[in-house]
Amino acid sequence: MVAEAQNLKVSVWRGTGETGEFETFDVPSRESQTVLDVVSWIQQQADPTLTYRFACRVGMCGSCAMMVNGIPRWTCRTHVKKVSENNTLRIEPLRNMPVIKDLVADMDPFFDKWVSAEALHHPTSTRNDAITPVDATTPERQAADAGIECINCGICYAACDTVAGNPDYLGPAALQRAWTLLNDAKDGGRIAILDAVSGSGGCHNCHSMGSCTRYCPNELDPMSAIAGLKRETFRHALRRKRDA
Amino acid sequence: MMRPARSHPLWLAFVLHRISGLALALFLPLHFWVLAKALTAPAQLDAFLRLTDNPAVKLAEFGLVFLLAVHFFGGLRLLALELLPWPARHKTLAAAAVALAFFVSGTFFLEAI
Amino acid sequence: MLDLKLYMAQRLTALIMAPLVIGHIAVMIYAIQGGLSAAEILGRTQGSVFWFAFYGLFVLAVSVHAAIGLRVIAHEWGGLKGPALSALTWAVGLGLLIMGARAVWAVTWA
């Protein structure tokens, strides 16, 4: 009723690279409005030079994540009503990443760390081999399945204070993918993964503060995945010592 | 007011663990220095220990025992979380750690006064 | 900042200290009854192989544990890195070890 008539006060980060400032827009409030709707309204009705990123609008592609009132969120699936405070919104590019322009963060460092963590497929067979059957009931497969739905949105990475304090830290997303691959019967990179996550930027920097798990829009649990890596690397190192 | 991205139980548990660890590490040199007085200047050690009859010092002692207890139980929580493949009861663990720390340091405090 | 080796050292010293901390807190609660005095403390510890081993091990473990902990804080909150960070780690570890060893020696053997 009243909400229909009231305008939203929306502060949006504007700027290129390291410099910038907030610009405030009045946006008409609507029923069932998402934060991405608000950003799109500003770009279409108020200022066509506003730069932001989105694609699917249904929470599958992971490209529209931004900081909304200080918290990283997938804006296409975030209702304004749930996150606005006194009809105000503050929208910024994702934390812990360089800014390209306005609301667009440079995700290169984020994805480079996936590669550094060996969070990529290590094939075990060729097209001429029979397909390896996957047994969905094993604990390893269940551990892999628990983290498989990551959409690479970068929200956990933006939420992580360890990344903020330690720029070399690989971060929750890359480490969680490393953990799912470690548990994947079709992945042959076990030693490579364990070594990759044991370096000075590796999984052992995690302080289990759990912001990744708290803010993951797909309700995944990177913190526990990283705990799994710590356990596995620890065990592997003890075994290596014993066999040496 | 804009909320910080971190005000949730596990982040608070992390901060408590870090602050208590930092404070204990800074306290240790003083602790060692005073005890070494037993070797170099026994009279001074006794004079220092008499300070502990002061209520303000008792309160500070309680603080130290609390820091130790909080770091101890917080550490056990982390070890359990990392070394045992436990399900997600992290918040309960965090709360239990603080509760136990209060219990242990409270016992110390009641004995002290 | 914390690779596997430092992490293992941190967790293993934590495991070593877990029973020692319980013992230490129990001793504190017991010792403060009726006030503290140098004579009381030394009467308990002087010449005791048990307390020498107990607190000797404690000092060794805490030196490693605190050095690694402060290293992480200095990096994450202080921005320290490279050789300066390594120097700090070693200085804290060795400093605590020397001071602690001296304290243990003073109350048990000297």
Automatic annotation (TrEMBL), chain A:
Keywords: 2Fe-2S, 3Fe-4S, 4Fe-4S, Iron, Iron-sulfur, Metal-binding, Oxidoreductase. One of its GO terms (molecular function) is 4 iron, 4 sulfur cluster binding. Its EC number is 1.3.5.1. Residues 8-97 form the 2Fe-2S ferredoxin-type domain. It catalyses: a quinone + succinate = fumarate + a quinol. Pathway: Carbohydrate metabolism; tricarboxylic acid cycle; fumarate from succinate (bacterial route): step 1/1. It comes from the Bacteria. Its cofactor is [3Fe-4S] cluster; [4Fe-4S] cluster; [2Fe-2S] cluster. It holds the Pfam family Fer2_3. Binds 1 [3Fe-4S] cluster. Binds 1 [4Fe-4S] cluster. InterPro entries: 2Fe-2S_ferredoxin-like_sf, 2Fe-2S_ferredoxin-type, 2Fe2S_fd_BS, 4Fe4S_Fe-S-bd, Beta-grasp_dom_sf, Helical_ferredxn, SDH/FRD_Iron-Sulfur, Succ_DH/fum_Rdtase_Fe-S. Residues 140-170 form the 4Fe-4S ferredoxin-type domain. Part of an enzyme complex containing four subunits: a flavoprotein, an iron-sulfur, cytochrome b-556, and a hydrophobic anchor protein. Belongs to the succinate dehydrogenase/fumarate reductase iron-sulfur protein family. This is Succinate dehydrogenase iron-sulfur subunit. The lineage of its organism: Bacteria, Pseudomonadati, Pseudomonadota, Alphaproteobacteria, Rhodobacterales.
TrEMBL record, chain B:
GO terms for cellular component: membrane. Its cofactor is heme. The chain crosses the membrane at residues 62-80, 92-110. Gene3D superfamilies: Fumarate reductase/succinate dehydrogenase, transmembrane subunit. It comes from the Bacteria. One of its GO terms (molecular function) is electron transfer activity. Heme binds at residue 71. InterPro entries: SdhC_prok, SQR/QFR_C/D, Succ_DH_cytb556, SuccDH_FuR_B_TM-su. The heme is bound between the two transmembrane subunits. It is found in: Membrane. Part of an enzyme complex containing four subunits: a flavoprotein, an iron-sulfur protein, plus two membrane-anchoring proteins, SdhC and SdhD. The complex can form homotrimers. Membrane-anchoring subunit of succinate dehydrogenase (SDH). NCBIfam families: succ_dehyd_cytB. Belongs to the cytochrome b560 family. This is Succinate dehydrogenase cytochrome b556 subunit.
UniProtKB/TrEMBL annotation, chain C:
The keyword Transmembrane applies. It is found in: Membrane. One of its GO terms (cellular component) is membrane. Keywords: Heme, Iron, Membrane, Metal-binding, Transmembrane, Transmembrane helix. The chain crosses the membrane at residues 12-32, 52-73, 85-105. Its cofactor is heme. GO terms for molecular function: metal ion binding. The keyword Transmembrane applies. Signal peptide: none annotated. Pfam families: Sdh_cyt (PF01127). Membrane-anchoring subunit of succinate dehydrogenase (SDH). This is Fumarate reductase subunit C.
